[in-house]
## 1
Amino acid sequence: MIGIFFFICLLVSCSSGAGRQEAIPAESLLRQAAFYEERLQYLPALAMYQQAARLAEKEKDSVALSAAYRRMGNIYRNQSLKHEALQCEKKALSYIGNANDSLRMELYREIGDIHALTGEADSACYYYQIGGCRISQAKILQQGGRCREAELLLKEELEQDISGEEKAELCLALADLKISSGELEEAEDYLSHVPASHPHVYASLSRIAESRGDSLQADFYRKNYSHYLSSLRQEKEQNQIAQLLFTSEQRTWENRLSNAEKTQKGQAFLWIGLLAVCGIGGWGYFRYWKKKTVVALSETEFHSSEVYQRFHRKEEWKPAPKDWEELLQAVNGTYPEFRERLKRKIPKLSEQEWRMCCLIKMAVPPSVTAMLLCCTNQAISMRRVRLYQKMTGEKGTPELCDAFIRDF
Amino acid sequence: MKKVLFGLMAAILISTGCGSKKSSGELLQIDLTAKDFASGQVEIADEIESVEYIPLELTDESLIANILDIAVTDEYIFVYSTRQDGVLQFDRKGHFLRRIAKTGNGPGETGQIISFTVDEENRLFCVSEYFSTSFYSFYGEFIKKITSLHPYSYQLSVGPNVMAELGRMYVPLNVPGMFSLGIFNWATDDTIALRPTIGNINLMPLEETSLKGWIYNGSMDGWFCYSEGTDTVWNVNAKTISPAFLVNNGYSASEEKEMRSSKTGNASVDGTYSVFNLFETPRFYFAKCFQSSNESKFFLYRLDKQTGALIREASDIDAMELFKHNRALTGIGIRNETDGGLPIWPFFSYPAKKLMIQVNTAVEIEYLKEKDPKLKEHPVLQKITEESNPLVTIYHLR
């Protein structure tokens, strides 16, 4: 009898243990689904979000529920399925508590976006209004020919007690409105309130120059705008990576610390040791990150420099020795020791090869490189292949050579 | 009785003589050099159930010159044209909606569009450039750009997140990473199938061999891909790359060598036939070819999948003249006996979806009207003037 009792106990404990192991929390499913969504694998992502929503509903986890529906709404939006997208966004809205105002506002904005994309101006306007998106609302009004209303709306918002950044965005929107209506001087006036470091200033300046028929100036501003955009994108990507690393490190530590508390106190020393090691690691990473940021900053300056622009020009011109000297100095300043390290790799680096390396490093297209070095496109390709072989000892392609020098 | 027997024997002789020879196992062959044919008129009317005409709306923004690429979904038509910045999106009734993938350096902007395709399952519009693919929603919203080092010329969607890639043209096949045909999952970066080389690779060293112009069109489960100068049309679907049928263009070994050499350009070889285009319907394979010695003269071929019977028809339209009006030479096509409209030759055929899409430029239609005055009476063609945008015709197959 006792034996049977023990056997039943063992069976129950085993099965419950197994059950615990198999149960996947909604949060994990959401993470997995987000992973698929990021890679645009919408079919498995949707299936997993639906599974997460079902689980969250069972667990009455309204946060997970609203997150699952919001993400599904985003996928349906990308799939241009308006009704499904709106349905999910509205469900997400219904599950968030009254407390989470910022999330509510974001959902209103997203619903407004969906209506705007499908050309439903009134609905879009309504949701932008309750979501507090004055600029988007004004754009919709402007598209509908209600420019005066849009202007009043933006001016009204400008008078509110808002941050400097928000003011800059409003001034930009007002400037764009004025450019569209041909009031260029007023547009310039609004732009003067926007910090010069704001990348979109260049886009507006380019539009003004274009409206005045100054295509050269417009082109100059447009190029500046593109450079700012790409450097901003790089910065954003770096921040995202740093944030991801930080969050995952933090999570790991939280788990470790909570486990440590549960285990014997004797292990505390071990944890402290580990903490110290990770601290040093973190400090090291911080230093590395800082160094990288400094490099990125100087790269940004270089990209907006006049010499950089000059060597990216597609028009026919031949650089004088003075131009080359100026460029080589700028490259040396931006990428310290680049030449020395390259020299170490290829001791017999010719002046022509060194010039080509600089042009590759600053992403000058091969056709422009050919023009600058006074040779054909084929010759440039061959030189890149030869250079790659000199550097790595392997046969490669021009693209491999470019990638190697850019990462060097 | 003798007459019956004689008739039977004659029928057997004709059917065996005119049918294309089956070689390489069970593969059918379109023999461009054949001398005898089952008939002198290529027909398609039995395959077509209905015809839908979609004149593309002409606005300041949607002015179309020559169409370089087109894709049609259940709801939209995407057009890439010469002298236009980005891809133009129309609804299925031909109303202009927006411009996608404009030229520029910003997010969602493109440098040089090579081709585009639609991932139907994920409902994504995919624009290919060399070494990158940008994804857009059908609302024109930019979603993501994925970079890839594959040396492809064209990317064609064959399933959710899966692309068939056609290797880079005119690049020696020994270049590292080079391939002829591949199937890749762009989301996971997995290689599903790969064919490093196609055609006869024993003609010359790989460093001298390259892929020449690609000809592709929809097949029953993916895409047909044919590289000029080779003898096999490949079928690429979501899982495999397999030979579909053969083409005998009459090249000798030395001509084939010249045709496939990476040292020669795009020149055709004298005295032989070259494939200009091909497509498939549920019952037939069709090919449009020209004799290399006379590029004005085109021939249409139809191969019956069941019987192997081959039919050839010589077109009476001068290709060189038509080329001025439409580079795709759509006007050289099969006689339209369904509604007496334009000659039939689809830009893309999707036999699995029972659809064929044809594009004729307005100037080409005007030219064809002059050649065949009956076309002037057609109710849709009557409304087309020289200033109109191209006319999209959709043939719904049985």
## 2
Amino acid sequence: MTKNILHYFGYGTNRDLDMMAAMIGRKDIAGEPGKLIGYELCIQKVEHIPGEPLVSAPAPLSPREIVTKAFDEAFELYIIRPNANAETYGTIWQMTPEEYEFVREWELLEFGMQEDIKAMAMDSKGNIINVVTHGTLSASTPVDRCIVGDTYEDYIVPKKGILQVAERVRLEYIERMKNNGKTKSDSF
Amino acid sequence: MREKESLFFEREGEPIKIERITPRDIKPRLPAPNETVMVLQRNAKDMREPGDDFGALEKEAIEATRTEAMRFFDTLFSELPEDEREKVDVMIVASDATLLMPDGQLCEHRRAVETAEIIIQALKVSMGKFDIPKDQFLNNTISDGEPIAVSELRDLLMFEESPEFVKYMTEKHGTGKAFWVAYETDAEREKRIEMGVEGPKEIADRVNYALTVRARIAAEHHKANPDRRLVMWNVSHYDAISPFIKEYIAGVDVTSYLPVDHSGGITLQVDAKGQPHTTIQNQEVTFKNKTL
């Protein structure tokens, strides 16, 4: 790993290349299957997504308001939470810190939908890799259901629609950063 | 909260007596083939005076931490037969927490990661002395030679996750020592639970969770690399380590006071069958037989 490349553990929809391409704007992303030991993969419904705006959020909007506006009340979201006996299957992607900011933007981390997590993943050859990802560090975070194994559906909302929204969010982010004249990549 | 999962380090038997944890409680125990030795250490002392160096490690603390780490690895490697020196692996892990204070002061220094960097410096010197091949420092492939940063070993999650509770606590107890005493003794237990905030018992569980995950990773490592010895050094913080030792090592009230000195910690062992064991201050700790 070189200093300007990080390993991002993408799970749920983010283990799929089409989704990552829509999110960060390129298709030639190197990635390989992996697992995150000690986290369980779960699904939240809209009512489980935080409904209060964070004081530190970039705008006075809650994650629930934002996703409901972009999708609808039937929206569902993948999330990981700690469980010592579980593992989550996904893809270990290689990307720049700047590209990872697109992921953070999509996952509404600044709005408090999930939080930044650093952890140890394992690739398909058994190599341990230090990864960045997102989810919750609280085992009591409310969820609708959890998933065991690696054969789960990548898309739990219509694929075409979510890819279009992801493209739009990325372009809006680029525009906003141009206007601000900076990126937030220094934090990684 | 965690009823579905099984935490690995669960003691049994009578409580043991520990009055203080110091750097000398990190015992250099050589793991046998297929065994793992885990160190759980508090970060080195950092500066708390306002100014540019707020949150940076103190120079004297850096030196003392390096000396103790060198003693650990020198002792360990010197006990290894020469023909076994190619069969020991070392991994250095650290909490990714930045410093946040009740009065809102914060800084980008990551005191556990910076402590782990000191441990790595000492390790490299010691490996050189005993001709331990460089690739046996597993961080070289896992994290480009840097400390492996993990979030589970953070100190208090409430500063980031529960600002309303922090506000309640500071209004009632101020931002000084009384704040910390109130949190550690769980004096605001009812309010804390009402607001869904992590308390001392939950922190002890989280550290046990982190070490359980580490034990699972160690088991996978041993499975893929039979007959090797593994040392996993974990740097965390007072607010995480003290509750863990009280609850899961000493077996005493998690809201009592157990000082853990800066750079102090303990050594835990997991044998080839996956059974944890340790001795703290000449007292044997018995753990329940758990399967990973």
